[in-house]
Amino acid sequence: MHARVSQYRIRPGKMDEFTAAVDSLIPALHKVAGFRSLLILRGGEPNKPEATAISLWDTVDELRAGDNNVFYYQVLTRLMACCDGFPSVREHEVLVSDIPLR
């Protein structure tokens, strides 16, 4: 299993809009080949909110194939409307997980 970890800097007052955008995209994510699960973590300071998105994928090839999917850019565009700058994005191999997958 592989993970994409994306760090977003949320504009003040935009966390609810960011969360709503993510919620609205989850059903479509489950239709993408290899996608397994998504976890969004809230962090940062009150005047500098952040969100960390961790998406889990069956294989690194499926994770990367999503980058060539128009849907990925639609998702990114909706999220970026709530953010300052481009997110930091990294790939990781999952060593241990106890997250129940579909």
Provide structural commentary.
The protein is of the alpha+beta class. It has a single domain (2-93), classed as Alpha-Beta Plaits, CATH 3.30.70. 31% of the residues lie in helices and 34% in strands. The protein is built from 3 helices and 4 strands, in the order E-H-E-E-H-H-E. It has helices at residues 15-29, 60-65, 70-80, and strands at 2-9, 35-45, 48-57, 88-93. It has a 4-stranded antiparallel β-sheet. Strand 2 (35-45) and strand 3 (48-57) form a beta hairpin. The two termini are 14 Å apart. The model has no long low-confidence stretch (mean pLDDT 89).
CATH topology: Alpha-Beta Plaits
Morphology? globular
Biggest sheet architecture: 4 strands, antiparallel
Helical/strand content category? alpha+beta
Rg, alpha carbons: 13 Å
Report the count of strand segments: 4
Quote the beta fraction. Answer: 25-35%
- Which sequence of strands runs across the widest sheet? 2-3-1-4
Q: What is the straight-line distance between the termini?
A: 14 Å
Tally of DSSP helical segments: 3
User: SSE order in H/E notation?
Assistant: EHEEHHE
- Mean pLDDT across the residues is 89
The second-level CATH architecture is 2-Layer Sandwich
CATH class: Alpha Beta
State the helicity in percent bands: 25-40%
Domain count: 1
